[in-house]
Amino acid sequence: MAYDSIDDELHVIWEAQASSDGMIYRRYTITRDGRINITAITYDSSVNLQLDYSSSNTLGQTVAIWNNDGSAHGLLIAVWAKYGTGFAEVRGSMRQLSMTSADGTAGNWTAISSAGVFSTDPPQVTADKIFTATSGDVEEAAGIRGGSGIHAKDIYVFAGENNSTNNRVDVYRATWNSGSLNWSGGWTSVGVLGQINTTGGGYILKNQLLTRPVLDTANDRLYLG
What was the pLDDT predicted at 19? Predict the structure, then answer.
């Protein structure tokens, strides 16, 4: 879920229980009283968009990011995982919001940086293929970095990779293009953040236990657990 401070709305990327329902974008209107207390949160039924779904593969944890890019209603960014036989991917898509029913039309969504080519079980919207492997599973965390450095407006995606070759957290960055006010600068593989021990017993899906990225504003440093 992401909070939209321009429209006082909640944007939610649902991971539905049935895989055939998939990843769904819905939003909710906040009603307040004269003291700004929340008195109701109401589903906006004009938007109910399947970003991705599958009858046979697994859809993983979602990330919703709202960004005030200077437009009338801001940008909504969705990042999610999908994996099955022969593939494991982290995908991403975005929409410059109009706050109309047009936000619920798949053809109005665009890639965050560069549209990927999906040979297996493609999404319903144009999307990036941020991480890809040929086996195993993957879960992700993502956020716009923030802070004051040269990468403050870049998007960072952390992929918890789990397959026969690697058990680790890979880091990817989409570079903010200040000229076009988007991330068309492309994705960069930043490297490996660390290893995940999946062979020592306990919970075998440790790659799912990624925290939300958090910025230490005093030291301008991004943290992930």
Answer: 63
